[in-house]
Amino acid sequence: MPELPEVETVRKGLQQLVLGKTIAKVEVFWPRIIEMPEVPIFQEYLIGQTIESMGRRGKFLIFKLSQFDLVSHLRMEGKYEFFARDQEVVITKHTHVIFHFTDGSQLQYRDVRKFGRMALVGKDQSSEYRGIKQLGPEPLSTDFKLEAFEKALALKTMAIKPLLLNQKIVVGLGNIYVDVALWYAKIHPERPANSL
Questions:
Q1: Distance CA 29, CA 98 (A)
Q2: By C-alpha distance, which of 1, 5, 25 is closest to 13?
Q3: Is 3 a catalytic residue?
Q4: Is 150 a known active-site residue?
Q5: Taking 80 as the threshold, does the pLDDT of residue 178 lie above it?
Q6: Which of 77, 93, 171, 188 has the most CB atoms less than 10 A away?
């Protein structure tokens, strides 16, 4: 599963590739990837939208469009593949959404396991999206305070590993980074958080 650094890398890559592009058409081959609104509305609303910037909150990518925010979670194996206008386009059985741009280029969302999700919300409303609303602070931002982190741990009797994975105390951690961090800190993953 992509963790915060991988999602940030995807965000930076997409920013270089799709910033300023206008959507001409959207094809959806696996409707369950679109969480909201209904697929025909999702497709209709995106026509004519320009990608103004690329954001990220935790493991969520946020396409900042001219009139909407498109929230995308890659989950286990989701990824984006960009094809320039003059490039040979390859559509695989794992291509589930295609964003066609007015300049002839396209962005494909591919997902082997089909776990990824997309949601279209109002302009600058991504922070109100239910998956984002419950997230804790970003680990590298000024919002992350050691004192608040310590207090949150002191209140929890659950094991430290699943607590760090739940994204409510700090965002962006997945299985690999939690294991590595606990290993270096010499903390057993099943140790109760409030015992630290």
A1: 8
A2: 5
A3: yes
A4: no
A5: yes
A6: 171
Provide the 8-state DSSP code for 58. Answer: T
d(CA 99, CA 108): 6
DSSP for 172-191?
S--HHHHHHHHHHHT--TTS
Sequence-ordered strand ranges (E) for 40-85: 51-57, 60-65, 68-73, 79-83
Q: pLDDT tens for residues 61-73?
A: 999 999 999 999 9
The active-site residue out of 3, 6, 8, 27 is 3
Cα-based angle 52, 60, 193 (whole degrees, multiple of 5): 145
pLDDT given for residue 21 in this prediction = 98
Block residue for tokens 């939690």:
178
Amino acid at 192: P
Residue type (1 letter), 17: L
